Automatic annotation (TrEMBL):
It holds the Pfam family Abhydrolase_1. This is Alpha/beta hydrolase. It comes from Mucilaginibacter defluvii. SUPFAM superfamilies: alpha/beta-Hydrolases (SSF53474). Keywords: Hydrolase. The keyword Hydrolase applies.
């Protein structure tokens, strides 16, 4: 598999990314507290299907350091466009998991002509809700209680993937990889980015999106209900629920997600 691993200086940040394969570009945007490794089960499947796969670590995550004490959703979107400009890519397909889905939606509003197709996985368009505000302080406390974001990750793993996957050999290996990433993460940076996507409501902007959209949710993840509500607000959206999948349905139900994902991007 041909690949490029590099940093690009974008908006004063050295953004870490991996770039695999050739063909129509697909940008994969990970979740809060995660990294580009969230998509370890999608990369080769997309490359083998003929796509060029670009996976950045979002600011404050993975190998991309946060360079200020404040950042906004708009800044996160600008980083994506800056990376694509640096790679001389005019348009691409976008796949966003959780927070990455919100960035994807904002990107499709911001420059809808550059977003060929969009895939949202267990995401939302509105965090300006009482439920989100209620849990935000506890999430931030776990992120910043160290070392790294291990407390956040350990307590959340059972909600991220289903029991069948977590107890499998592959699940144990994946846990080890993700836990290592959490141990090396800067919890305060992640909490800062979490603030950037809190209190955001894109409802008034959704009508501007012209890109075809696929929504995938895990049947056992609370985001599934939000995705059902979002489907009615996006005129070109299709929604599929993977029974038994949890928040990282792309991990615990990777084959089913990849099948839907690749079919949507190819047709």
């Amino acid at each position: 598999m041909e690949n490029t691993t590099n940093f690009k200086n974008v908006n004063g940040r050295d953004i870490f990314y991996v770039d695999f394969g050739r063909g129509t570009p697909v940008v994969l945007l990970h979740s809060t507290g995660g990294s580009g490794r969230d998509f370890i089960f999608q990369t080769s499947a997309l490359v083998n299907a003929g796509f060029r796969v670009i996976i950045p670590d979002i600011a404050g995550h993975g190998a991309t350091k946060l360079t200020s004490d404040e950042i906004t959703l708009k800044d996160l979107v600008k980083d994506v466009w800056g990376l694509l400009d640096a790679l001389e890519i005019s348009d691409a397909n976008f796949v966003g998991l959780s927070m990455g889905g919100m960035i994807t939606l904002k990107a499709a509003v911001n420059r809808t002509q550059r977003v060929k197709k969009a895939v949202l996985i267990n995401s939302s368009w509105n965090t300006d809700t009482e439920a989100f505000k209620k849990f935000l302080p506890a999430w931030k406390e776990k992120l910043t209680s160290g070392p790294g974001t291990t407390k956040w990750f350990n307590e959340g793993w059972k909600m991220l993937v289903n029991d069948a996957f977590s107890s499998s050999a592959l699940g144990v290996q994946t846990f080890q990889i993700f836990l290592g990433n959490a141990a090396m993460s800067d919890g305060r940076s992640v909490a800062t980015v979490l603030d950037s996507v809190s209190g955001v409501d894109l409802t008034g902007d959704l009508s501007e999106i012209r890109s075809p959209i696929l929504m995938i949710s895990g049947g056992d993840d609370p985001a599934s209900e939000a995705m059902k509500a979002l489907e009615h607000q996006l005129p070109r959206a299709k929604h599929f629920v993977i029974p038994g999948g949890r928040h990282m349905v792309n991990v615990d139900s990777a084959e089913k997600v990849n099948e839907r994902l690749i079919h949507f991007l190819q047709h």
